[in-house]
Specification:
InterPro entries: Bact_solute-bd_prot1 (IPR050490), SBP (IPR006059). Residues 1-26 form the signal peptide. This is Sugar ABC transporter substrate-binding protein. Helices cover 45% and strands 11% of the residues. It contains 19 helices and nine strands. It has helices at 2-21, 47-55, 57-64, 75-87, 102-108, 116-121, 132-137, 161-167, 177-187, 208-218, 235-251, 261-269, 283-286, 328-338, 341-351, 368-373, 378-387, 411-426, 432-451; strands at residues 32-33, 36-44, 67-73, 95-98, 148-153, 155-160, 275-279, 298-302, 315-320. The chain is globular. Residues 1-35 have low confidence and may be disordered.
Length: 452
């Protein structure tokens, strides 16, 4: 009963979003070109994905003859589109970017190809070089690998060193959230049009939900207790959410309720925000002098805490192969290449070493070129990934794994609906208390399913 309900929930949730993006999808997986193979790849619109879309034809396609047709979507739309395609067995895509949340759930449903065997056969891929926390997060209940990491990340604080120096502020390496709030107030308006901090406010379990849940964890809250008691309206959850909403409303970016990862990246890189708490993977873009006005002037600190020793999330955007593909060989060749040491070297030499999709391989951090380019953020990124504990991210036991999410199918819908209300609170259209009271009812429905 639970499996059927979860499947129906995934399909219903995805179908609603797919109407917005149906026209942007690639063609069916049976497409060919001149007798050669063409694979269809659906991926999230982050800078690292945009890089691979630019590099593929002149390298991978040239070497293998396999053409790659990319569909690139914003994060929320990507999640809807890929869920609909995989859950309904539509078979439109041969490869898709998914993450640690989807892998164990979809593996149990039998929707994904096992990929560890492909990696084992390719000695140049060096599967043993992949970071253990990332491998664990992308493995199924059978211990096998079901997605190949493109890059791995935790979360940390990024700040404009010039602004802090001008204000005489030293940002602690391990700050508390109160310290960050105090600094945000002090640097707000330090330069024309600059706000004290940028935080995600865009609704979505993987947008606002990701950053907010790490704050909830370290404030002592949780979505559910170990015995599946819903805690969305608990004192700790309310305290964390009020803190977050107040901080972004008082010292955050304009239009915060519509700001996700991409908008905050733009704000930080264009000197519209003095600080930003988000994914460690953003550092490469901030250090790219071709697009960032603060390249070489960014400082980094560990994710702010309150009651926990660490609070950074753990995530990997990874390549997965739906069981419906009819081009497993070609798709696996692309995925192995896209997650390889060879590809990292290509990015470093062609685009710059700070733009390497890191956070997945130990060897990356031993490369002299990367170590030099990532000198300000490489070590803290690696240590943040290693410190993340999906099994125990807060102050109390949890019913499932996950730092910034709850690893059950229902969370995709629950997290999105609750963050829609919290985003509305950021926009001043409702209150945090009402948002969490409504969210508690939704969470209780989910909890009831798992208590039976």
């Amino acid at each position: 009963m639970r499996t059927r309900r979860s499947f129906q929930l995934l399909v219903t949730t995805a179908a609603a979003g797919s109407l917005l993006v149906a026209c942007s999808g690639a063609g069916g997986s049976s497409s060919t070109d001149g007798g050669g193979k063409t694979i269809n790849v659906l991926m999230v619109g982050n800078p690292q994905m945009e890089d691979i879309a630019k590099l593929t034809e002149s390298t991978f396609t040239k070497d293998t003859g396999i053409k790659v047709k990319f569909t690139i979507l914003p994060e929320n739309e990507l999640r809807d589109k890929v869920t609909q395609d995989v859950a309904t067995q539509a078979g439109q895509y041969d490869v898709a970017t998914i993450g640690a949340y989807e892998v164990p759930i979809w593996q149990k449903n039998g929707w994904l190809h096992e990929l560890g065997s492909y990696a084992d056969k390719d000695t140049a891929f060096d599967k043993a070089d992949l970071l253990k926390p990332i491998v664990t997060s992308l493995s199924g209940s059978d211990g096998k690998l079901y997605a190949l990491p493109f890059y791995g990340e935790s979360s940390f604080l990024m700040y404009n060193k010039d602004v802090m120096k001008a204000k005489g502020i030293t940002v602690p390496e391990h700050p508390t959230w109160q310290q960050i709030a105090d600094i945000a107030a002090e640097v707000d308006g330090a330069e024309p049009g600059m706000r004290g901090i940028c935080l995600r406010g865009l609704a979505g379990w993987g947008e606002l939900g990701a950053t907010l849940t790490t704050v909830v964890n370290t404030f002592g809250g949780t979505w559910f207790t170990k015995d599946w008691k819903a805690e969305v309206d608990s004192a700790a959850f309310k305290k964390a959410t009020n803190f977050y909403v107040d901080l972004v409303r008082e010292h955050g970016q304009a239009g915060a309720a519509q700001s996700g990862f991409t908008e905050c990246l733009n704000a930080m890189s264009q000197k519209k925000a003095a600080m930003w708490y988000d994914a460690t993977s953003a550092a490469g873009s901030l250090e790219d002098a071709a697009t960032s006005k603060i390249a070489g002037h960014v400082g980094y600190a560990y994710a702010p805490t309150v009651e926990t020793e660490s609070s950074g999330w753990l995530w990997s955007w990874a390549w997965a192969m739906p069981k419906t593909t009819k081009k497993a060989d070609a798709a696996s060749q692309f995925m192995l290449w896209a997650s390889s040491k060879e590809y990292e070297k290509l990015v470093g030499e062609k685009l710059g070493w700070s733009r390497v999709p890191a956070g997945k391989r130990a060897s990356t951090y031993a490369l002299p070129e990367y170590s030099k380019a990532a000198g300000s953020f490489g070590d803290i990124t690696l240590k943040s990934i290693e410190a993340a504990d999906p099994a125990d991210p807060g102050v109390q036991p949890r019913p499932t794994v996950g730092v910034q999410y709850v690893a059950v199918p229902e969370f995709q819908d629950l997290g999105t609906k609750v963050t829609q209300e919290i985003s509305a609170a950021i926009a001043g259209k409702t209150t945090v208390d009402k948002a969490l009271t409504d969210g508690q009812k939704l969470a209780e429905d989910v909890a009831e399913t798992y208590r039976k």
